[in-house]
Amino acid sequence: xxxxxxxxxxxxxxxxxxxxxxxxxxxxxxxxxxxxxxxxxxxxxxxxxxxxxxxxxxxxxxxxxxxxxxxxxxxxxxxxxxxxxxxxxxxxxxxxxxxxxxxxxxxxxxxxxxxxxxxxxxxxxxxxxxxxxxxxxxxxxxxxxxxxxxxxxxxxxxxxxxxxxxxxxxxxxxxxxxxxxxxxxxxxxxxxxxxxxxxxxxxxxxxxxxxxxxxxxxxxxxxxxxxxxxxxxxxxxxxxxxxxxxxxxxxxxxxxxxxxxxxxxxxxxxxxxxxxxxxxxxxxxxxxxxxxxxxxxxxxxxxxxxxxxxxxxxxxxxxxxx
Length: 322
Hints:
- By secondary structure, the protein is α/β, with parallel strands linked by helices.
- It folds into 2 domains: 228 residues, Spore Coat Polysaccharide Biosynthesis Protein SpsA, Chain A (Alpha-Beta Complex), CATH 3.90.550; 70 residues.
- Helix content is 48%, strand content 13%.
- The protein contains 10 helices and 7 strands.
- A 7-stranded mixed beta sheet has the order 3-2-1-4-6-5-7, with helices on both faces.
- Helix 5 runs parallel beside helix 8 and helix 9 runs antiparallel to helix 10.
- The radius of gyration is 27 Å and the shape is elongated.
- It starts with a strand and ends in a 16-residue tail after the last helix.
């Protein structure tokens, strides 16, 4: 059985062979100064340089340095998810491998979890060394996330430097590109003690950034996905059923009005166009069809949800009497 340790540091990386020795040396110094028991879990996300060979050498020099190597590039979310499942620390800290995150922040991040009782502490790089083409979309992105998630006390959701209580990382799943929204995922899983800490942002010393502008578009789409799944994942009929009812009722109401008008005009001997010659008839027909389709989508979603493996999975905080 794995012995409990103070801190697990999870570092996803791709093509960072130059920065790894310096980063690990820095982490080792901080751990030694604070007398922490620790492990460093490095996830090589399909590097094409010598990153894995460097990790092997670092592990040889220090068994606390551990490594996981993917066969190809799966993305940061996959790397973090694997790291979360493999780590054993009481506090879990994530950081990037490019030396833009400072290991000197670790003691404060650790204490805010252990002593202050937070579930998550997210870093806030208040002063950044990035071009405006990156900082401006980031601010917009964070504003939209705050509004949709209700987590109004975080300024930088996408900061790689975060600390977690071990219970959090063992009870959430990170996939696709959802690493940007781990605080949101955790909140909707019941972990609401979330705060932030201003951290140092250092200029990149080696290599180049691995992320482009497309991440902002993908990030917004992922936010919509998280919002929908968390709200309606176990009750899809509550979403599709409401829309289907509104659509079907509106179409049915228009149809009744057209038929009523047709009967009234016929009774009054008023000349009029045929119902099928009226544009509103086709609008009503489309709304009726869409309403039925939305209902069917809701029923199918309910059937899938009822047969899902995690349909009765709930976050249990405490137990008594066992």
